[in-house]
Specification:
The chain has 477 residues and is of the alpha/beta class. It has a 5-stranded parallel beta sheet with strand order 4-5-8-3-9. A 3-stranded mixed beta sheet has the order 2-1-10, with helices on one face. The two termini are 30 Å apart.
Length: 477
């Protein structure tokens, strides 16, 4: 698969990716995912995107990068997200300073509380009225010193309970970030799909507890950015894959697998020439501006709502219709309707992020929708490579077509005729070769050769009785 279309991105974002690539020699797809996560983390809670009167989305992005050791995941993460780590470090120091004074104020408050309670007990024993003291106690409760909010943005090695508590008590828009995501995959936070999906959708999430007060996270926002190696991810798929996909969690993610075609390993040569950080510096400056804006406007109930220009709205609607047309049983997004159903939503979110980062609070122009679509479409193709070929879907589709063709004429079918006249989705790329190979292994078909070398597809012993017949798409033709 071709590399991610970085050139589709706005100038500063594109050049920042090039700067980071020059410094780290990491894959551009990996860098781009990290940069998109930075945009999401900086802007979520500041903006929403309104497509029309009935469609309004928050701008949080879920990113999942599968990349083995040596792809420079940590280097990229630290370089891209440096302003956020600096922000959290400063907030932690400020919180520690405030906590030292908080303890003293709390001790003084408790002494006042003890005094009032002592007077209430004394008057109660004497049978005297305690109404005034009770009112004073109520007023005192309103004056109880609260633990200062830390407003931390980045969490990684955290339980869902701890994250939910932090979002309720400190700040409701956070980032769940891990450049080595094995720890996150092993923790319950990546199994709490109702919680993470609710945060992506922007709906309230109620936390019911037996031993402590229950609470509801309102207007919660989570940017998810997980980079994980292939083996731990495959293990996670075996344990939680069916549940993760069934819940719609995977469908909400922009997923990329840094395979041998996208990896830069083997191409990283020592180069002593000076490397520019000009655009990365400008990128960090803009991120810091957004973080300062967030500190001044920390209540997500005051999110700015960005709308699309008429031309941008028309473009988004065309993209929506195109996605819908690709969901059919014999189309590009066949067997991926769950991912396709979230794709236009992600396009709207990303277009808003690109627009607000680049031009601030203005109507979203058509060019940002086009850029977002090219990027999201590329991620969609990545998702197809990872999840689209499960459950024998394409094998069943080809068998459906072969059964129809054999019923018309009891002859062998040329391989090239399948490529020309077979199911549309199998006519391009290497998918047909993979499907044919799988059917051969199951003794459903066999490949024969004519005298001039042309391949033909013949029925094998399991052609009329195999596991692929159980797939509903077998009845398509």
């Amino acid at each position: 698969m071709s590399n991610i279309p970085v050139n589709a991105l706005p100038d500063l974002i594109r050049e920042t990716i090039y700067d980071i690539a020059e410094h780290t020699q990491a894959p551009r797809a990996l860098i781009t995912s990290s940069v998109i996560s930075a945009l999401s983390l900086a802007c979520q809670g500041l903006i929403k995107v309104k497509v029309n009167d009935s469609l309004e989305y928050n701008t949080s992005i879920f990113s999942l990068v599968i990349a083995n050791s040596g792809e420079r995941k940590t280097s990229v993460d630290r370089m891209v997200l440096a302003p956020f780590y600096q922000h959290d470090k400063a907030k932690l120091a400020q919180s520690d300073e405030l906590k030292s004074g908080h303890g003293t104020r709390l001790m003084a408050w408790r002494e006042r509380e003890k005094g009032i309670l002592s007077q209430i007990r004394k008057k109660t024993v004497q049978g005297q009225c305690t109404a005034a003291l009770s009112d004073a106690l109520v007023e005192l409760q309103l004056e109880k010193p609260l633990l200062p909010k830390m407003n931390k943005l980045i969490y990684n090695n955290v339980t869902p309970e701890a994250l939910q508590h932090a979002m309720y008590n400190h700040g409701s828009h956070v980032g769940l970030i891990a450049d080595e995501g094995t720890n996150i995959l092993d923790r319950k936070v990546m199994n709490e799909f109702s919680f993470t999906c609710s945060m992506w959708d922007g709906v309230p999430f109620s936390v019911e507890r037996k031993t402590s007060p229950s609470f509801t996270i309102v207007n919660g926002r989570i940017t998810l950015s997980v980079m994980v190696q292939k083996k731990p991810f495959d293990f996670y798929l075996r344990r939680q894959g069916e549940k993760a996909r069934g819940s719609g969690f995977f469908a909400r993610c922009l997923i990329v697998n840094i395979d041998e075609q996208l990896s830069t390993q083997g191409e990283r040569y020592i180069d002593d020439r000076p490397k520019s950080s000009h655009y990365l510096t400008l990128f960090h400056k803009r991120i810091n501006e957004l973080l300062n804006e967030k500190d001044l406007q920390d209540d997500v109930s005051f999110e700015k709502v960005l709308s699309l220009t008429p031309a941008a709205l028309y473009e988004w609607q065309e993209i929506y219709n195109l996605i819908e047309s690709r969901i059919g049983p014999d189309e590009d997004y066949a067997n991926m309707n769950d991912f396709a159903s979230k794709l236009a939503n992600n396009v709207a979110r990303l277009s808003a992020l690109l627009s607000y980062f680049t031009q601030g609070e203005r109507l979203i122009e058509k060019e940002y929708v086009e850029s977002a679509w090219l990027i999201c479409e590329w991620y969609m193709n990545q998702a197809i490579n990872l999840f689209g070929y499960e459950d024998g879907y394409y094998e069943a589709l080809l068998l459906s077509w072969l059964h129809r063709e054999y019923s018309r004429s009891d002859v062998r079918i040329k391989y090239n005729d399948i490529r020309r006249f077979g199911p549309n989705v199998l006519r391009k790329g290497k998918l047909l070769d993979k499907v044919i190979s799988n059917l051969e292994k199951e003794r459903v078909i066999e490949i024969d050769y004519l005298r001039h070398g042309a391949r033909v597809v013949c029925r094998d012993r399991n052609f009329h009785d195999n596991i692929f017949h159980k797939n509903p798409v077998f009845k398509y033709y």
